[in-house]
Amino acid sequence: MADDAEKPARDYRETVFLPETPFPMRAGLPQKEPQILARWAEIDLYHAMRAERQRAGAPLFVLHDGPPYANGAIHIGHALQKTLKDFVVRSRFLLGYDVDFVPGWDCHGLPIEWKIEEELRAQGRRKDEVSKAEFRTRCREYAAHWIDVQREGFKRLGVIGDWENRYATMDYGSEAAIVAEFHKFAASGQLYRGSKPVMWSPVERTALADAEVEYHDHVSPTIWVKFPVAEGSDAARGASVVIWTTTPWTIPANRAVSYNPDIAYSVYQVEAMEGGLEFEPWAKPGDRLIVADKLAADVMAAAKVAKFRKVEAVDCQGMVCEHPLAALDTHYSFQVPLLAGDHVTDDAGTGFVHTAPGHGADDYAVWLAHGHREIPDTVDPDGAYYPHVALFGGLKVLETEGKKAGKFGPANGAVMEKLIEAGRLLARGRLEHSYPHSWRSKAPVIFRNTPQWFIRMDEPVDTPELGGRTLRETALEAIEATAFHPAQGKNRIRSMVESRPDWLISRQRAWGAPLAMFVDKDTGQPLHDPEVDRRIVDAIRAEGADAWFTRPAADFLGSHDPDRYEKVEDILDVWFDSGSTHAFTLEGRAHTRWPADLYLEGSDQHRGWFQSSLLESSGTRGRAPYNAILTHGFVMDEAGEKMSKSKGNVVDPERVIGESGAEIIRLWTAMIDYSDDCRIGKTILQTTSDAYRKLRNTVRYLLGALADYSPDEAVELDQMPPLERFILHRLWELDGQVRAAYEAYLFQDVIRPVLDFCQDELSALFFDIRRDSLYCDRPDAVRRRAARTVMDAVFERLTAWLSPLIPFTMEEAWTTRYPDAHSNCLRVIPQTPAEWRNDAEAARWAKVQEATSVVTGALEVERREKRLGAALEAAPKVHIADADLLAAFDGLDPAEVFRTSQATLVAGEGPPGAFRLAEVPGVAVEPLRAEGRKCARSWRILPEVGSDPRYPDLSLRDADAVAAWDAAHGKVDA
Hints:
elongated; 28 helices; single chain; about 40% helix; five-stranded parallel sheet; alpha/beta
């Protein structure tokens, strides 16, 4: 037994080889990261990485940056996205690629216009009092400010790229390129001007494309309206066709009623009304109503009809009705025909669809399909009825100003009152349903007939690029040729492209790239003259898009008569702007190529940038501008709810960086499944910080253990102990996993296995077992040298593998060990020798750790019961019934494996009272106490302590090590 009371003859602490490193346990990331950023800036890290790869003849990889909008400081969604892009850039550099990444910004569009309008109102000025040139200058200055702010925010996250040559859609060269792309569509015949109902935002006073619309729950009034039959079968005469709609304001624009020939309709007569009502219903006994048979009961219930009967079936073909407002004003005295259309269903409503061709896509299509061409204009750009609309002129459909902006105006109520006055309202109610809203203003939108410019989706295009295919066909083929991460993204964008309408590209605003073309006033056709187009593009390249708005038409038209042509001053859809970025970022620049290898954005961009880029490039080049698409989900709070300032659940990346460091945001990004919506908050960030500390402590331990390590002390593989051969096998295994994960952009599959490796196999196994050897073996001992050789290999790989994800920490670790070396970021992932693979050692250590878990369990009981203190006080007797499991310990020191002073392995089941774990059958442990004396240096309890007379309180191994240390330090002879 150890005599703990006996004092050692000497203080041996100076002879113990404890880890030494200046790498601090506390990271201090908020202070350390800016220092590392400054060093990277000093060496121009991104261009240094490119130069290094180009000298090595590395293959090129192009990530094209989807431009964030230059409006406001960066938010956590920005941080997620730009960090993911940085993972791609850095990991491709690590894998040996030369990576081209040019950050960019989207600058045109309504949000900036609104901000400038707010500034003007604060100065007591209206937008129409400011010249277009001044207004656009203010917009440009506003965007430039936020580009600078966001750029610094992204750089603070550690994002690398060609920041000095960033792109912006408002740059003169960019605007010129965007207009040149527009001219390609015009020249190829894909552009046309059409008058059709488009989604219109009265609040923003502009048309919106599908990608600019989102759907929210909305409460709308619902009405059932009677259209008296003017012409039809005998059964239909004296009856009324009943329609149902959630947009009463469109009744003045009604020109037809649609039906489906496959639906059964009948005339129903009202027999009796419900009693005891607090109001007098509008239906009366004797009324004859025509509705779909399937929906008759629902219609009668809405009208408070207690009893009704079916008169007879009717055929709607050729039927004509009166307008329900005809009795109030001759403006509505026109006939309302019934038109067959397959968009009509009997799932809800009445089985008929009120048809206002100026206010609905289906309405417009069925109206044209039946040979009608005249589309009524009833609502102006501000969302009010035109003065010529009888009974309702000037009334607002939607309020556009003040606190009520975006709310329904008086139009709905006025229409319902007039229908009551005319005796044509059958019933009304309210319905909560999904309704389109502008994704910028969040205000409801309306369908409104207006002349706009469109790009055809289904017209064959006879250009070399499209070869007679339509734009839709070309885009769908391009989707099939694109790789998607995750794979389900393909179906999502494909379904959108399959069903999307023609591309609406004109906007009635000021801040954007113009539809810079001239239209013949007589024919309405665009002027196609390459010289005119060249002069336009040259002027915009020299002076910006302002040149189009400020210079006279004669400057561009050359020999053409300015009086003959209309100068189009609409601006392009901002999605056309951003969809054209490939044209001026990937084409015409050195050391890049078109198409890009990857586009990376949020999953909402299947309808946005991914799709606009696809359509723009397919229409001008016959294929997508990318080979692959990667999407990420949205960032939610810890409860899975959308973040908002009103809820107080917003996570500000700048605050996280100031408190914990950008590295924590980066590690969080690496650890999540970014393909789905992800969560962040205080608790999650604390968990991330805990994981970071474990990684940092692993690296710190390696640095300390490798102090003064020299390659001269390396041990060859065939001399390595089994434990070291197992760790090298795990490095070989992880190397393959890390490479494959980075190639597939699966960053979670890098960090999680590496974290597990650091915790389970390094800290809990390798470091724990080898701690005694590292501290107490002589420096030239093979076991200690082997451990340090393997630690060197681990350090070399960890600092490379994790460099794309937590580059600040890996840079700090690398420069701590190699102060004069180049940046860790310049490294290529180290090659891992195939001979490190050792499946036999992996199988052995899986078994060894099973048995070890039983020993650990037994010792925990002894410590809890105060029968033992430290594990070094134990000498467990381990009974192993499984011969294969027992054989796994061949060549191993069980005491070393169990981290005890002594241990004995015995074949067999063991005594009944031994400790066992149900999950490890056949292993039983007797937790015996170690016998002998306690070594004053290693604290192991061994009978041999004191055998060397020179060192009477040391074990033989420690005596030998101290003798060597004394000799090296000139104290005694070894």
